[in-house]
């Protein structure tokens, strides 16, 4: 079974974006890009909510082609173009989308079909950002792990990572890492 891992930057007080979706407080540098790039380069499927997908789609397909593209831009753009994308959306359809499928209903059944399918290389399916999609999957106990990058900031308000949790979610810590920019990686698996 493939696992759904929520990949998220968050503030020390648990917010994944500011009150209006701002993410300008997130610290990323070459050390983080390199670390994250090694893990995601093994994956063959990415999961997004509609808003995050549209943001990614507006940038990554051509990011590596720009004259000032960084090594990260080139590598991630190549990966993004090749990876199969799954988008949770009630308003989009997959007509005309490249290497992308939409899940708009029967969330648990459709996600479990993906998790238990024999296609792909069996690596984790990373859920990138997408707080609304993360909340929907959390409510149905479909997330198998959390790969969190805690930024050294307290926002005080914004979009929280954890909302409307009905029962405890027990986690096992797999690894931690401190980056020079002050970000701390926390990698958890959900106890089943």
Structural account:
28% of the residues lie in helices and 28% in strands. The protein is of the alpha/beta class and 192 residues long. It has a single domain, classed as Dihydrofolate Reductase, subunit A (3-Layer(aba) Sandwich), CATH 3.40.430. The strands form two sheets. The protein has an eight-stranded mixed β-sheet with strand order 5-4-3-6-1-7-10-9, sandwiched between helices. It has a two-stranded antiparallel ribbon with strand order 2-8. Helix 1 runs parallel beside helix 4. The longest helix has 12 residues. The mean pLDDT is 92.
How many separate structural domains? 1
The helix/strand series, from N terminus to C terminus, equals: EEHEHHHEEHEHEEEE
CATH class division: Alpha Beta
* Oligomeric state: single chain
Summarize the biggest pleated sheet.
8 strands, mixed
The Rg value, from CA coordinates, equals 16 Å
* Helicity level: 25-40%
Neighbour order of strands in the largest sheet: 5-4-3-6-1-7-10-9
Query: At the third CATH level, what is the topology name?
Result: Dihydrofolate Reductase, subunit A
Structural class call reads alpha/beta
Strand residues, percent = 25-35%
CA distance, first residue to last residue: 14 Å
CATH architecture: 3-Layer(aba) Sandwich
What are the low-pLDDT stretches, counting only 5+ consecutive residues below 50? none
């Amino acid at each position: 079974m493939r696992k759904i891992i929520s990949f998220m930057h968050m503030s020390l007080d648990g917010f994944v974006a500011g009150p209006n979706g701002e993410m300008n407080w997130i610290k990323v540098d070459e050390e983080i890009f390199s670390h994250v790039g090694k893990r995601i380069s093994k994956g063959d499927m990415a999961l997004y909510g509609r808003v995050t997908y549209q943001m990614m789609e507006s940038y990554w397909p051509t990011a590596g082609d720009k004259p000032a593209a960084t090594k990260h831009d080139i590598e991630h753009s190549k990966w993004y173009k090749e990876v199969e994308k799954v988008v949770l959306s009630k308003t989009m359809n997959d007509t005309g989308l490249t290497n992308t499928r939409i899940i708009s209903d029967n969330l648990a059944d459709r996600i479990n079909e993906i998790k238990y399918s024999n296609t792909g290389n069996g690596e984790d399916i990373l859920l990138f950002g997408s707080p609304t999609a993360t909340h929907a999957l959390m409510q149905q106990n479909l997330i198998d792990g959390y790969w969190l990058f805690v930024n050294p900031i307290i926002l005080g308000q914004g979009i929280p990572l954890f909302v409307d949790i009905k029962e405890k979610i027990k986690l096992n810590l797999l690894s931690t890492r401190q980056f020079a920019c002050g970000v701390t990686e926390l990698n958890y698996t959900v106890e089943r």
